[in-house]
Amino acid sequence: MTPPLLLMILSLGLLGCGAPSAETGNGSDLLPGPPPTSGRAVAWEIHAPVSASLGTLFPIVVRGPEDISGTLPLQLNEKLIPVSIHRGVGSLVHAFDHSLLEISVDSPEGSIQVLANTLPVRTFAGVLTDEDLLWEESASIHITETVTVPLGKILLVGPGTEILLEENVQLEIIGDLTLAGEIDHPVVLTPALQAAWGSVHLHPGSTVSASHTWWIRGGGDVSKAFGHSHSQPVIRVESATFNAHGGGVLDSPGKAFGASDSRVHLVDFLVSRCDTGGEFERSQLIVETSHFVEIPDADGIAEDDDNDALYLVDVLVEDGEPLETRITQSIFSQGEDDGIDQNGARVHVERCWISGFAHEGVAASNGERIRIRDTWIEGCEQGIEAGYGSPEVIVEHCVVVNNEVGLRMGDDYDWEVDGTLTVTNSASVNNRVANVKNHVNALNGPAPDSIVIMCSMMDDPEWNEREGNVGGIPRWDSEGCLTEDSKGKNAGCDHLDIGKLTCP
Q: What digits encode the pLDDT tens for the residues 403-416?
């Protein structure tokens, strides 16, 4: 096994931190100072499969410290390719066209290698029988037509297996599927000839367990579009269970996930350059230490297809109890619609970093409750929005900074707004148009008694020195934590700092 490259390089200003940018807002009291990478040795890991077939697409993933965002030069043989880093993680998909590919950070100190795959090919189509239910890295798997795992059967895919799928081809899982990849011997589902394949479709009652599995350029069949945006899911989960640890969905014309009446659990998962990160209807989604970035791409041009990183609709109820979606310690960065769009779902967001979305960092609507806690939101049109219908939006120990609008009651629709926005121990400052905005189009004015702000910093005359609020602008370090001399120290209702909780 080829080990990952763990390379120490000295930052020369190519990378910037994820803290507020000096290019936005008035900044002087707000900004932490020099980027944390300045003059500092940084450890980078590079991961890729050890082999790939000529002409196929495979993933390259770069990982480093979480306080780093920016552009990192990556050397692929003689070519230097910039990779966007979002809070320590970046990726690209590469078409293999060499007998040997050396990959390194722009430094002569080391590299990893990807070799041309010369393994035999096993071809599959139709319903799998018992002797077909083990796929190993001793062969490349070629799916020429739709393949079905029948009821009562389990397909096991071993580490390092490459699965090549023809255009719009499906994997229909009526039984169960286990994808047992390893970090440098991942399972890779990739197009046979670079034309997008279809989806892995979990039928009612099925279970998929995936470790270190990459899904590349799927969701190509628009005739099987699902949900709010007009695209096919790469992973369609229908009254089923999907669990993944490591890996992710990259460079797909379809949405990464389309789930209904299901349970989905993602840990250390990466979704990048997909139509949307996923749409979940009446489903329980658990997300931990994951990244949703560059949705649907990184060109900065709005696609106008509701390209949210996550779109969460309605509530899954079991035994009379609503199940809560939980999103923790995850990064949402650079998108052309919303970061998290809650529409009648019950959601808990905690210890997340949300930045660079063309519309809302977090949008709430329709009803139910979303709680946002210990989260940093910056660089969006609106940081947190309580929109149409009657959502209950609870914001605790959050920082909302350098957006157009920080906190918003109301939205751009002409529909009734009857929800609430309750903010405690948080800061919404240095937003360019307003730190707090209460305007409902249907009323042509504010929704009365809809916003409560306590023990917080809004830098707004309406809210300063009211309900325990603190006037002025706090000072943060590069991790988004209050400096020792800042206003807001120990000023929360709980006698802790205003702003983020998880500080060193």
A: 999 999 999 999 99
